[in-house]
Amino acid sequence: MNAMQNRLMTLNISQWDPEIDPQQTNQLASALEDGKVLYLPQLAFRLNSDEERFLSPSWSNGRAKNISFESKNGQLKGAHGNEEELKALGAMISRYRSRAVGLIQSLLPHYSKTLQVARTSFRPFEVAGRPSSRKKDDTRLHVDAFPSRPNHGERILRVFCNINPDDLPRRWRVGQDFTTVAQRFLPGISRPFPGSAAILQALGITKSRRSEYDHLMLHLHDAMKADNDYQIHSPQLAVDFPPGSVWICFSDQTPHAAMSGQFLLEQTLHLPVSGLYDPSRSPLKVLEQLCGRALI
Q1: Distance of alpha carbon 214 from alpha carbon 147, whole angstroms
Q2: Is 259 helix (H, G, I), strand (E, B) or coil?
Q3: Which terminus of the chain has fewer CB atoms gathered within 10 Å of its CB, N or C?
Q4: What is the phi-psi region of residue 121: left when phi exceeds 0, alpha when psi lies from -120 to 50, beta otherwise?
Q5: Are strands 116-123 and 67-69 parallel, antiparallel or unpaired?
Q6: Are the C-beta atoms of residues 220 and 181 closer than 8 Å to each other?
Q7: Edge-to-edge strand ranges of the sheet holding 264-271
Q8: Greatest CA span in the chain, whole angstroms?
């Protein structure tokens, strides 16, 4: 269990724009790029009195499990309400986006050069008990990979914040390091069928050409979720993230499962492998080393 406890790095930070010295920055980058979770138990995102009304699933339009704010066009998706209400809800989510991006830029300034701000989400529904297929069941340990969105090794960095008003935690499981997981599941994954990537793109199933890296990551995601022995018996750490806390991880590298919890804000950031402090520890480089060939 001691080894799994090290999968979590706790930071005594209570400001969204902390001053971090270069030595600490290097330590944070090393932990994060090793697939660990950075945990900030004293960093709260406080809602104003008007925003507290949004802590209800009734603001969802019922067609999506999350309400999302698109950084490129400022569009709010998945929400229900009148113009004034949606504007206020969007402003709350946008304010969290600014806080989360600023936090990463303060903690890991090297990322700022190539950091791409992606979707911000508000998750108003309870995780536990939500109907889902096995592949979409996020209560099962997995690393993130998406069938329609190939990313050719680009990193997926996420900043989570529990804003539950009833003092209920967000319960997670955190799994082993990525290399260990890849060594377990990679032998069972076949190489993509020649020409399949072009066909998937031509049919509109993928938004761009799927690389062999994307193929492996998608099948790794599915194999992890399908393996009951891995889900139950593999070394893992159960963590309760209380309201008023933030946690950060590379979700394409850190095996994770959200077991329960309601009312969460999440910011997704994308980063090229070249933008890391140590590119050699990225999933792309790990998989290329294990396979003995280039994957993009």
Answers
A1: 8
A2: strand
A3: N
A4: beta
A5: antiparallel
A6: yes
A7: 8-10, 37-40, 246-250, 155-162, 264-271, 116-123, 67-69, 76-77
A8: 57
Mean pLDDT of successive 10-residue stretches along the chain, which has 296 residues = 85 96 97 98 96 97 91 87 96 97 98 97 94 89 96 98 98 98 98 95 95 98 98 97 98 98 98 98 98 97
- Please say whether the beta carbons of 141 and 200 come within 8 A: no
- Tokens linked to 93: 């989510």
**Which are the contacts of 226, defined by CB distance < 8 A and separation ≥ 6?**
134
Q: How many degrees, rounded to 5, is the angle at CA 278 between CA 99 and CA 187?
A: 110
CA distances from 113 to 66, 96, 99 (A): 29, 21, 18
The predicted pLDDT at position 2 comes to 64
Rounded-to-integer distance, Cα 225 and Cα 219, Å: 10
Q: What is the DSSP string of 74-137?
A: --EESB-S-HHHHHHHHHHHHHHHHHHHHHHHHH-GGGGGT-EEEEEEEE-S-STT----TTT-
Alpha carbon distance 178, 281 (integer Å):
9
Q: Is 219 exposed, middle or buried (0-12, 13-18, 19+ CB in 10 A)?
A: middle
Q: What's the CA gap between 177 and 276, in Å, rounded?
A: 18
What pLDDT score does 72 carry? 75
* AA identity, residue 43: L
Q: Give the per-residue pLDDT at 65.
A: 85
- Tokens representing 232 are 């139950």
In this prediction, residue 257 carries a pLDDT of 98
What is the residue type of 75? Q
Residue 220 region, left (φ>0) first, then alpha (ψ -120 to 50), else beta?
Answer: alpha
pLDDT at 12: 96
How far is 7 from 33, CA to CA, in rounded Å? 12
